[in-house]
């Protein structure tokens, strides 16, 4: 059971309408959003920010954005968001080799140098204290323009919020996300941890 119980999807109809976005990205409305709607202004603002951050305005693909989210969530240890991010990457057409080898993105040939720079940026930006430095800036500018870097940092920052929300809440993880987590992350010891409904 999570720290705060998710409400029914019918609780706030404006949130429900906005949350249709997640039926495309995940195939279900996440329990995190169903919890946020206890204060509907938060759930609605979050969904609108999510939609803006995940919009594609440059060459940062939907799949790469979700892999950026996975690296960020992996670095902070949020099992809930790791599973959601890898599931969304799959649904948005990430290559099978990338999904199977996301842990080895720095060396695996399925990842380009541009993708490695983006994923390293995610890792360094997610650390506490922050580790973004001149070297990662130089690497980013070799492959990406400033608008694309803003898109990437939007994803990293969004998942900074989600990692704190879901790990603090112990948000119960949905079956579909568990399935994706086990499928792509299980060989590296992925388990749902506090998100199995038994923490609190």
Automatic annotation (TrEMBL):
<dbReference type="GO" id="GO:0051920">
    <property type="term" value="F:peroxiredoxin activity"/>
</dbReference>
<protein>
    <submittedName>
        <fullName>Carboxymuconolactone decarboxylase family protein</fullName>
    </submittedName>
</protein>
<dbReference type="Pfam" id="PF02627">
    <property type="entry name" value="CMD"/>
</dbReference>
<dbReference type="InterPro" id="IPR029032">
    <property type="entry name" value="AhpD-like"/>
</dbReference>
<dbReference type="InterPro" id="IPR003779">
    <property type="entry name" value="CMD-like"/>
</dbReference>
<feature type="domain" description="Carboxymuconolactone decarboxylase-like">
    <location>
        <begin position="40"/>
        <end position="120"/>
    </location>
</feature>
């Amino acid at each position: 059971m999570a720290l705060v119980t998710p409400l029914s999807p019918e609780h706030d109809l404006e949130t429900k309408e906005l949350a249709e976005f997640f039926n495309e990205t995940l195939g279900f409305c996440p329990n995190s959003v169903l919890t946020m709607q206890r204060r509907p202004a938060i759930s609605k603002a979050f969904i609108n920010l999510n939609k803006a951050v995940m919009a594609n305005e440059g060459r940062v693909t939907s799949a790469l954005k979700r892999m950026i989210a996975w690296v960020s969530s992996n670095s902070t240890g949020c099992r809930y968001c790791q599973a959601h991010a890898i599931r969304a990457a799959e649904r948005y057409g990430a290559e099978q080799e990338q999904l199977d080898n996301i842990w080895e993105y720095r060396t695996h040939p399925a990842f380009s140098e541009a993708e490695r720079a983006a994923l390293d940026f995610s890792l360094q930006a997610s650390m506490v204290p922050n580790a973004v430095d001149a070297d990662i800036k130089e690497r980013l500018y070799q492959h990406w323009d400033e608008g694309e870097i803003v898109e990437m940092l939007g994803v990293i920052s969004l998942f900074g919020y989600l990692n704190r929300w879901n790990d603090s809440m112990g948000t119960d993880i949905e079956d579909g996300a568990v399935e994706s987590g086990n499928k792509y992350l299980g060989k590296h010891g992925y388990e749902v941890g506090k998100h199995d409904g038994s923490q609190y």
